[in-house]
Fold each of these.
Amino acid sequence: MIDVDEAQARLLAAAPRLPAEAVALADAAGRVAAEPIVARRTQPPFPSSAMDGYAIRTADLPGPLRVVGESAAGRRYAAALGPGESVRIFTGAPVPEGADAVLIQEDAAREGDMVRATDVAAKGDNVRRMGLDFALGDTLVEAGTVLAPRHVALAGAGGHAELMVARRPRVAFLATGDELVLPGEPTGPDQIVASITPALAATVQAAGAETIDLGIAPDDRAEIARRARAGLDEADVLVTLGGASVGDHDLVKPALGDLGIEPDFWKVAVRPGKPLMFSSRPLVLGLPGNPVSGAVCAVLFLVPLVRAMQGAARPLPEVHEGVLGRDLSGNGPRRDHMRAVRTGRTITPAARQDSSMLNVLAHSDVLLVREPHAGPASAGETCRYIAL
């Protein structure tokens, strides 16, 4: 049994980098930048007004100044501003040559074609200098960035209609077990619903992957091997759900062995999720059958693997600091990830932490992280958590 850090490190080291592809700017959110995004233009491309008012020469204040024209967004005042002159200007419009400030309209009194200042204005007031946001050739977004809508906006402003991003990893899911039926199907007296597969598919899709559902394999070694082979032929990563422990009906490991696949590791000191299996060649991640265990291990291991394949700079989940909301007893030998609720900075773990309880998971928004052999902790102490 290895610890969580080593398991994550071995997954990330084994992750192959996927090739890059061009996508339209509107389709780039959620993808990983395959190369730096470099500005193809300067923004703003000219000195522009930050406010509605009058473009002026501060040496001429307080005026009165003659209003000789107008500068609007997309339609500039073309001439240079001379002594004693001003130009009516609107937000975003180019500042005329010769002007060194914009007198906001609240500080201006106008009569006919004359205007005077009712308050002081200094050089540079309300003028956005050329290149204030970025300049031609600037790196706007680093390679390996998971592109959020704000990055898409910046890339568009920088002149990009398309972006180079990593290809989406293809992830195939194979659930196993005679006790499982699909959501919506009638259940026998000894059966349960396999509800975690669509949840995990949604999880990796949010991380940039495409998914393949291989269905539910019965507890039959040959059938598990057949479906696993089909999944490996189609996907970059095969994810099995259940059947990876040590019971007589846990057939995933021997079925994979029939395909010549041996795990790099099997069992991780994590709670929930100890029976976690990983093969690097080919990429196979065996998640525990308990639904909460599978969901937690997806956050800790599957999503980082998917992100690393796309070249994400920070594929591991971010760990934050908060304040513990209730007393806790000491932890055992495995790193624990307790389902919890965050209120401000206060993290309150649920009283019941059974790895089969999806109701608790569904009403949690963070995982409280406790290190192996951590001693008792009191409410108000600093704690660490991962956002769900």
Amino acid sequence: MRILLGVTAGIAAYKSAVLLRLLKEFGHEVDVVPTPASLKFVGTATWEALSGRPVTTGVFEGVDEVRHVRLGQEADLVVVAPATADFLAKIRAGRADDLLTSSILASEAPKLLVPAMHTEMWQNLATAENVQVLRERGLEVMEPAEGRLTGKDSGRGRMPEPEHIFARIQQFEQPAYSYAPLAGTLFAPDPEVQPPMAGRTVVITAGGTREPLDPVRYLGNRSSGRQGVALARAAAGMGATVRLIAGVVDAVLPEAEASITVERIETAEQLRDAVVRAAPESDVLVMAAAVADFRPAAYAQTKIKKTDDGASPVIELERNPDILAEAVQRRDASGDGPAVIVGFAAETGSEESDPLQLAQQKLARKGCDLLVLNRVGEGLVFGQEDTEVHLIASEEAERALGASEPQRVTGTKHQAAQAVMKQTAALLAARG
């Protein structure tokens, strides 16, 4: 989705940098259009670095491409955050005295305005009337949050947190069921066409686990959880009801999104318990979490201290349960549970072994239907915005899908998630 992100002159503009980062992480193309006064709060260099696009503020910049019209015409969605009281008044009046207001007048895309101002300004009769008129014209004006404002005062008028704005933006994007990467439309699809996962329940695990060693330390890994969260949003966008079981994540969790419920866990044992409870009632299980293979055999009730003799403690490890293999075994033994189980493999490879071969061996060992291979390492995949995955199907799934070669997908984690859920939905449909 192509988004025009307007930024007006409020101190909350710093939050919009976080919002921009979230939008980019999920594959949206973003043109930032700040007002000239807003650059006193956050400068041009920040917006250009985060968006990867040139940033201008006036109608006489980029005249050769008629920038003040083109930006509005090409946008799929216009978001203004923060939207000051002055900006709301300008838009109500139809003013076009800078690049942002001109672009908005030239745009027929949906518009989301996110107010931020002091309580007295928000409650002023002039502002209230401006908001009412804008809503009557079809613009969406979010309600401001209540909390600490600039200075010592608190009240309603605080800009909502970037995660909440992002969740609302995601609701504008309805999937076009062609499954093209990031295919989307801002208009509801044909009501006669059912989303491919409508009525289905999908359980997705995300993030890493922490295995406690003592009250202070733990064993963990570098997983950010971004891929698992992207999978949850992709499944929800295809009509599924999603249960996201999240371990330790750096990603923004979709807790404000109606079709996704979030359960938090920390250890591999807690994850196993959550999967055992959720999997039997699901149609699909996607094990995207980076589960620790080992945990300390003994937990120290007090912090392990350094000793004066310089000796290092010996930490004995024991294996964690193989949650993916157990889920497959329970399903196959009972005939109940998810019709499709998707596993993930994070492989570094070595001089003797190719990551793709290791992933194919893992697929055979685990017995799942699909396996997603990530080649990981320092600066690869974990915590990154972009990724490269290979989708590998079991022999039976290959026959059902009519494909025999692993599918390679490169791009954002949102694009990879769309590809994974596309293949999952196709296999689910093939199995009835």
Amino acid sequence: MKSRDSADVAEAAPDTFRVSRGASRLRRVVRNIGLLALVAIAFYLLGFGWFASHVSRLTTPADPEPADAIIVLTGGQSRLDAAIGLLESGKGARLLISGVHPTASRKQLQRATKGDTQLFSCCIDIDRAALDTIGNAEESAKWVQTHGYSRIILVTNNYHMPRSLLEMGRLLQGARLVPYPVVNSNLDNGGWLIKPGAFRVLFTEYNKYLLALGRVVLPIRPAFASHAGD
């Protein structure tokens, strides 16, 4: 009887050992995944800190060098006013206002910006097709290719500038973009940390920036490229 019990224990031992090894391997896998997740979260938060600090230090150039043309991405009156001012001061020969609402007329834009009527007639183009920053980049690229511009002043808000440069640079590979950030709120010295509204805008924009960065890394061919010569 005793020998039979010993045989049963001997037969059960390999199964117990295999279960123990499997559980140990599973614990290692879970531990490694947890460590990787913590590292990823740490890099994500550090990246957000860098992004917010970088954006908060951006300033509007006092006297930018002239360029071939100017592109402004709609989203606020201050952006339009800045772009019109650059055009009036001769910083570019032509201006594209990208992302205008389909129902907004040229006359309404002219009145809203108090721009010169003759200037609007001769030197300002309006893009109503773009619905977001990706659309801004696609429509702007068509416009730049059509006119053969090589140096462009890009006007948008400071928090929007990093993503805009990524999306534009992804398509305008033959043109140099000169950033002209418009600053509505002074967020340097960590001011964004104590302003919930600013923090929310920067955090949202950071996540959109990461998605734009992914599009730059992945070799995605722009849809309009095949029709560029048409």
